[in-house]
Amino acid sequence: MSSASSTLPATSLAEPSRSFLQTLRRIGRLSAPYFRSEEKWKAWGLLIGVVALNLGTVYVTVLINDWSRVFYDALQAKNQPVFWTQLLRFTYIAMAGILVAVLKFYLTQLLQVRWRAWMTRSYMTRWLANHTFYRLELARYSARNTVDGAQTANPDNPDNPDQRIQEDMQLFTDYTVTLSMGILNSVVTLVTFIGILWGLSGPLAFTLGGQSFSVPGYMVWVAAIYCAVGTTITHYIGRPLIGLNFRQQRFEADFRHHLIRVRENSEAIALDRGEKVEHGQLDTRFSSVLRNYLSLIKQQKNLVAFTASFGQLSVVFPFFLAAPRFFSGAIQFGELMQISRTFSTVQDSLSWFVDNYDRVAVWRATADRLSTFDDAMRAHAETQAPVARQPGSRLHTDNLDVALPDGTKLLHHTALTVQPGESVLLQGPSGSGKSTLFRAFAGIWPFAVGTVHVPTNTMFIPQRPYVPDGSLRDALTYPNLASDYDDDALRQALNDALLPELAKRLDDSDAWSQKLSGGEQQRLAIARVLLKKPAWLFADEATSALDAEAEAVLYKRLAATVQAAGGAMVSIAHRPSVGDHHKQRWTLVPQAEGTGSEGKARYRLSTDAGSLAGAAA
Question: Does this model's pTM top 0.85?
Fold first, then answer.
């Protein structure tokens, strides 16, 4: 049932992109929305300010370079008046440099924070819109991907979106600003100082084969060759860092995700005595973190060894080149120091890639992870929901097909109707797709096609309701605002849901999903229904954790609520006693020869069972 499958991004997430040019295009695509957003004027203003201050830093460097020539010449000549004048001049230059540095730091950080805030809110909005967060998780397992005989997550869908939104965006905005400004500084510094170095170095005259040669500005050529060789070697040594950083972020996120799962399911794990298993799984994930990190350290060790050697050599290299001219008397001590400083500045500009390769590797890996996340969200946003969900006065489906994420077809061309005032109990074997059919009714199941007419003022109760942390009143009114209801209504709903002890704790804040039992959480979900009074209710094993007496009381109150609103109730339940509160039964019946893989559904929906005996009035 390919038509029911979500469109997936073409780029695999298993490995980072191999093309650096492609990575630059990705960085540009990730960056452009902020500078076109509603904050574009602030963004451009901050960016222009940061660029101007970076240029100011280069200008201060030029002043220091010129100052060093005069200052050291004064020392050599023992010219005391010039010496003290230059010290005073240095004070002014240094104060200007400090002011520029402080302003540059502040505006750079402000740009990063504003950019990250906008980008994070934008991605959160897109992730939570149109059930994208739900579809992405389903899509990770939408195709069978077998490794060593075990089914794993589909590698063509992003892992750990929480980590990409929280950590990757911080790294991306930080590195994009700092590294791009570093490149700008290097280019402007190179353009500024290369002319100075050309004039200071003079020609290199030598005789070869009886002919005289002269190379003007020879130090510029030496610096270019020196840095070209260093950059090539650095890239060769550091290239594996890109993939290692990409995988390190993924392994760290997987380890953190499982730690959170253990915390959230602490009671169930403790009751099952599952500590040893969880320890083993956590240790396996942490071992992946350590193993990859050790590989990262080894590769960084090789890179650091080369870059440190490269940097140390560059300290004495300009003296080695200029010493003959100094000892011959062609240049003074101040000019020697200026040549040294200028050569080092040019060499530093040309060596920017060498000095920042490890950070560039992290930047590239982060951009690849965010880009694939962006591609996946874009693909799901552009994919129309297979089920056409339309409002109506009754529940009705036309040619509804429902499948599992792996393509197995559960139901085919299903047509059913529920009129206002009716109550239906949906039953069938475990795994037959009862809850999946409810998801299709809700319009969140991407592996279904057809048309579903659903009335407005509808609520769904899952078997395991979501109970957010925070105040009890917020948990009770979720997802509505607590301010929409008065305290008397909230207390009445809790009392009617058989939770009188909670009626006095509306302002208490706690981790309610951990503090409330399964039955209490189900009663809290029922309290939401009694508070909001929907006309149509879909309950999926909503009372499975309750005793028979509480179940009977609450189902009567739920039925009365929807009947008073002129609607209907559809329930999923295995307990026969739930049938006492419904007038009809739908049953998912296994097909005799259906396999679900050859165009025939595994189940058919039988709606001809007639009225349930003993149904409540």
Answer: no
The sign of the CA dihedral 43, 49, 50, 55 is positive
The CA-based diameter of the chain, rounded to the nearest angstrom, is 118
Confidence of residue 432 (pLDDT cuts 50, 70, 90): confident
Residue labelled with tokens 């077809």: 409
Buried b (16+ CB within 10 A) or exposed e, 504-516: eebeeeeebbeeb
* Short-list 355, 357, 350, CA closest to 226: 350
- Decide if 243 contacts 15 (C-beta within 8 A): yes
Length of the chain: 617
Q: 177 with 54: CB under 8 angstroms?
A: no
Closest-CA residue to 4 (of 353, 460, 439, 365): 439
In this prediction, residue 613 has a pLDDT band, given cuts at 50, 70 and 90, of very low
Q: What angle do CA 534, 536, 539 make, to 5 degrees?
A: 100
Paired residues of 453 in beta bridges: 390, 396
Distance separating alpha carbons of residues 396 and 336, to the nearest angstrom: 89
Give a three-class secondary structure readout of 564-577. HCCCEEEEECCCHH
Backbone dihedral angles phi then psi of residue 597, each to the nearest 5 degrees: -120, -5
Q: Which of 609, 603, 612, 610 is nearest to 437 (CA)?
A: 603
pLDDT in tens, 191-212: 877 777 777 776 766 677 777 7
Question: Residue 382's pLDDT is what?
Answer: 67
- In the prediction, which pLDDT does 156 show? 53
Report DSSP state, residue 153.
Answer: -
How far is C-alpha 561 from the chain's CA centre?
42
CB within 8 A of 402, min separation 6: which ones?
A: 409, 410, 411, 414, 433, 436, 437, 440, 445, 447, 448
**Long-range contact set of residues 229-237: C-beta below 8 Å, sequence gap at least 24:** 230/310, 230/351, 230/354, 231/350, 231/351, 231/353, 231/354, 233/306, 234/303, 234/306, 234/307, 234/310, 234/353, 234/354, 234/357, 235/353, 235/357, 237/299, 237/302, 237/303, 237/306
Higher pLDDT among residues 260 and 484, named by residue: 484
Q: What are phi and psi of 613, to 5 degrees?
A: -70, 135
SS3 content of the chain, % helix, strand, coil (to 5): 60, 15, 25
Give the residue-averaged pLDDT of 251-263.
83
Torsion of CA 572, 577, 582, 587, to 10 degrees: 50
Give the residues across from 208 on adjacent strands.
211
- Express each pLDDT in 292-325 by its tens digit: 989 888 888 888 888 778 777 777 777 777 777 7
